[in-house]
Design a protein that fits this description.
328 residues, alpha+beta, Ribosomal Protein S5, domain 2, Alpha-Beta Plaits, 2 domains, 7-stranded mixed beta sheet, 4-stranded antiparallel beta sheet, 12 helices, 11 strands, 33% helix, 27% strand, globular
């Protein structure tokens, strides 16, 4: 597998800016509960040309401690070093404590890994990270996970750690279930808890996405008595060959198992989804929810995607914020 860099640009010798893209789930199944308490999933991820932006600016060089001479755990060493090396701007509204932010956690996980394999450089640049946030939180668009993955990729490059994609995927899995897809960097079938990824070649598409102001606790959703947790698992071959049943339209057995639960708990999501369903006849696509919500989306045919006036009218009439986006 090759490491994919998305929309990377060097503003100057000391600054790197990257798109931290959103994702949508074309369908989302739960195929069972694991012994460790997590659930096995099946989904197809699509990456979008829309997201947050992260700017990484190199500042002072910092000498790193010799891990063999430090009488603390790897986790403690990584935490202390992250505090020295990373400053984060633009995330105050997301987490009160910077150490709880997924960007900061990604830097810490990366440092912990290179310490654990005895490849920590003798000195590293301190880096100021500025987050330009566009994706709403709790929308099922993977914003925080994408920020974490984008941070891993950028720091690996800027610190010249030379970790390969498999190593970065291993680190990503320790941060969160959706982080690996953004390291993978391409549309993929995902299984397990989201870390078992198989690339899939899908045609380019446009989507109308609505982001209602609603958030349902993920733990509450997974514990909900009406959540379908035993969808029959499908092979990657079957999912690859049946893409016509979840690309523009969503045909059985493909579904998002969280949708009926979320719309029963969040009227704003139900309203947004109902609005898109009213446009299905014009687009010949099936409206649906991404992830565990709250964002909903409608695939657009080529002629509709090209009709800017019509799309502007649909967005203006929508019950919440709307965006027309394209697959990467």
């Amino acid at each position: 597998m090759t490491q994919t860099v998305t929309n990377c640009s060097l503003a100057d010798n000391n600054s790197l800016t990257r798109l931290s893209p959103a994702k949508i789930n074309l369908f989302l199944h739960i195929t069972g509960k694991r012994a460790d308490g997590y659930h096995n999933l099946q989904t197809v991820f699509r990456l979008l040309d829309w997201g947050d932006y992260l700017q990484f600016t190199l500042t002072d060089m910092i000498d790193t401690p010799n891990a063999a001479q430090v009488n603390t755990s790897i986790d403690q060493q990584a935490a202390a070093l992250t505090q020295q090396l990373i400053s984060l701007k633009g995330a105050a509204s997301i987490t009160d404590n910077v150490a709880d932010n997924l960007i900061f956690k990604a830097a810490k996980a990366l440092l912990a890994y290179v310490i654990s394999i005895a490849q920590l450089p003798q000195s590293l640049h301190a880096i100021s990270i500025t987050l330009d946030k566009h994706l709403p939180m709790g929308a099922g668009l993977g914003g925080g996970s994408s920020n974490a993955a984008t941070t891993l990729l950028a720091l690996n490059e800027l610190w010249q750690l030379n970790l390969n994609q498999d190593e970065l995927l291993k680190i990503a899995t320790t941060i969160g279930a959706d982080v690996p897809i953004f390291i993978f960097g391409q549309d993929a079938i995902a299984m397990g808890i989201g870390e078992e990824l198989t690339s899939i070649d899908l045609p380019n598409q446009h989507y109308l996405i609505l982001t209602p102001n609603a958030h349902v606790n993920t733990a509450e959703l997974f514990a909900h008595p009406k959540l379908n947790r035993d969808i029959a698992p499908l092979s990657t071959k079957t999912i690859t060959h049946q893409s016509r049943d979840y690309l523009s339209n969503l045909n059985s057995p493909y579904q998002n198992v969280f949708t009926p639960v979320v719309i029963s708990l969040a009227p704003a999501v139900e309203e947004a989804l109902s609005y898109l369903q009213g446009l299905e006849a014009d687009t010949l696509g099936t409206a649906r929810m991404t992830g565990s919500g709250s964002a909903v989306f409608l695939p657009l045919g080529a002629s509709v995607a090209a009709d800017k006036a019509l799309l502007n009218q649909w967005i203006a009439n929508a019950p919440c914020a709307g965006y027309v986006v394209e697959s990467l």
